[in-house]
Design a protein that fits this description.
The protein has 289 residues and is α+β, with helices and mostly antiparallel strands. Helices cover 16% and strands 31% of the residues. It contains 8 helices and 22 strands. The chain is elongated, with a radius of gyration of 21 Å.
């Protein structure tokens, strides 16, 4: 897996990441992914802080097939048959393969499976025209023009589920008793926890505190706020990065080091350390919800 940030001013097209089954057609892996909207980088929601997910219950397959066939006839209006959800900083969403989604304009932390397979099913976003080749991007060349294949890539039951929030929305969940963590000088929550392919936590170390944090698996981390020490290394959240400049905000923690415990010291008297930690498949600490 890997993680990334995307920070688009407007919405992205309604699109899909096919499953492993359909990825094999082009020699690619399927792509599940998750979103988290860190409060530190979302003081403004951008032009459209809403994300379309899935297909509105009651929509027929024939209706979506017509949208796909109208891709080159102007706005194919596929989001007319979807549901938009307002994005809330400090929360997230899980997006399995086969789910249509049109990410909104909040700065998004995205743990995902290591794949870039996608197909754009929306032809016009604001004033941006989506090229025809991006509609067929996940299809082998000998299947370009096969609209039924595009329809098959949609996990229909997943998309028309009327309870999308129940199954895919993610509020942070404490990894342990909050009062005990607070007394020990930190708070830690699961922020991505609905997939075996990856997971993520948000760790906050309170001002002036030193803690030892243990995990059962290796992880990558990135600083969102504060400064201090992590083991022998300085950690800090840069406010400005110049071209070519090395920073001290991203590190990798091996499995052995994670299990032994990582000592983190917050040297500030007022500013908490906040870091995001992303884990690979089958994290032993994770209970998928």
């Amino acid at each position: 897996m890997y993680s990334k940030f995307f920070d688009n001013m407007g919405p992205l097209p309604h699109h899909i990441h096919p499953s492993d089954e359909f990825g094999k057609l082009t020699g690619q892996n399927g792509k599940p992914e998750a979103y988290y909207f860190p409060p530190q980088v979302n003081n403004h929601g951008g032009d459209f802080p809403y994300t379309f997910f899935g297909i509105a219950p009651g929509t027929s397959k024939e209706t979506i097939l017509d949208c796909l066939k109208n891709f080159n006839k102007g706005d194919n209006k596929i989001t007319n048959y979807s549901q938009a959800f307002r994005l809330q900083p400090g929360t997230g969403w899980d997006v399995p393969p086969g789910m249509l989604h049109a990410p909104g304009s909040m700065c998004t932390y995205e743990p995902q499976k290591a794949s870039d397979i996608f197909a754009m099913y929306q032809s016009l976003v604001n004033e941006a025209i989506i090229p025809d080749e991006l509609l067929w991007n996940a299809c082998p060349k000998n299947r370009w023009g096969d609209y039924e294949l595009l329809l098959e890539m949609i996990d229909w039951d997943l998309n028309v589920n009327p309870n999308l929030m129940d199954n895919h929305y993610m509020e942070p969940k404490p990894v342990a008793d909050p009062a005990q963590m607070q007394a020990a000088g930190y708070q830690e929550t699961w922020i991505c926890y609905r997939s075996h392919d990856y997971s993520a936590k948000e760790l906050t170390v309170l001002p002036g505190q030193t803690v030892v944090i243990r995990d059962a698996a290796a992880y990558g981390m990135i600083m969102m706020q504060g400064h201090g020490k992590m083991g022998a290394w300085d950690i800090e959240t840069p406010s400005l990065i110049r071209f070519g400049q090395l920073t001290q905000d991203e590190y990798f923690v091996s499995e052995a080091a994670a299990k032994a415990g990582v000592k983190i010291t917050n040297t500030s008297k007022s500013d908490p350390i906040v870091m995001l930690k992303h884990f690979g498949p089958k994290n032993p600490d994770l209970t998928v919800l």
